[in-house]
Specification:
alpha/beta; 3 domains; 8 strands; 5-stranded parallel sheet; 3-stranded antiparallel sheet; Rossmann fold
């Protein structure tokens, strides 16, 4: 079905002048034209505009709302209650511990209204921390932890892939895990947050040799080099790693070393930011 602009304005609550401005400024939609030159909108156009209007009514800027809709993050239907995140975390954790992929996907689908960074930082990472604690306490087994890690990695990778950073990309960030460290979920969450924020992300994965990191950053000269330490490490070793990263990175590249494994007593390193949490990580940028 097709709609003229006055009908679209009535259905969405967006006045015609605003609709035309959004089309010009954000290349949001490309309505068809009648033989007389009048705009005509499809059902899909009206649905998209309605989602954007709902998000702006909830307090997002128009740019944020458009970015979220383009990432496939729709708001909840009108009147629908937001899911209790603690309940979603329990549902996801229990399904993963049962090796129940269908149940885990059902929990994941309850989060469709949330932006990617919240799905990552409020659900996926806390669930993995809890499962890791259960494994360390002898309650969960390695197979359960690996199954859960695989599911979480899959979802983080899909969200990173779904974000189109090729359109007017911001500065470039290289995300690389330190040599000898196979853990990458925190690093992936950092890459996701950067991508959501408009950075062009080059994700190298875990356990990257220093020489390879050096070759990449020397060749690309990114604005930012991010890496992480998940398991608690010796403060001296962390400082040595930070010094080595600073030495191999170009002068104009900011270096951030994050993760829960960095001891609070680690001595500062000139030109390196230590971030103990995601908030610390992004206060550096």
């Amino acid at each position: 079905m097709s709609y003229r602009i006055k009908r679209v304005a009535h259905l969405t609550g967006i006045n015609p002048a605003t609709l035309r401005a959004w089309e010009r400024r954000y290349n949001l939609i490309a309505p068809g034209r009648t033989d007389s030159g009048y705009r005509v909108y499809s059902d899909e156009d009206v649905a998209m505009l309605g989602r954007i209007k709902q998000l702006t009514d909830e307090g997002l800027t128009i740019g944020e709302a458009i970015a979220r809709v383009r990432r496939g993050c729709a708001p909840l239907p009108a009147g629908a209650p937001a899911p209790d995140l603690a309940d979603v975390c329990r549902q996801l954790r229990d399904a993963l511990l049962r090796f129940d992929r269908k149940g885990a996907l059902a929990a994941w689908e309850r989060l469709g209204h949330l932006p990617p960074e919240r799905r990552s930082e409020d659900v996926l990472l806390p669930v993995m921390r809890e499962i890791g604690d259960l494994w360390q306490g002898g309650v969960a087994v390695v197979a359960q932890e690996h199954f859960a890690s695989g599911f979480v990695r899959e979802k983080l990778a899909a969200m990173i892939s779904d974000i189109d950073t090729g359109v007017a990309p911001g500065p470039e960030a290289v995300c690389a895990g330190l040599p000898g460290d196979p853990h990458e979920l925190g690093l992936m969450a950092c890459a996701l947050r950067l991508a959501v924020s408009g950075w062009k992300v080059v994700y190298l994965g875990p356990n990257v040799p220093y020489d390879d990191i050096r070759r990449v950053v020397e060749g690309r000269r990114p604005a930012l080099l991010c890496t992480s330490i998940v398991l608690r490490a010796n403060a001296h070793d962390v400082r040595q790693a930070a010094e080595r990263l600073r030495a191999l990175a170009p002068r104009e590249t900011a270096v951030v070393l994050g993760g829960a494994g960095i001891p609070p007593e680690t001595e500062p390193v000139r030109g390196v930011r230590f971030a103990h949490s995601m908030c610390d990580m992004f206060s550096a940028n």
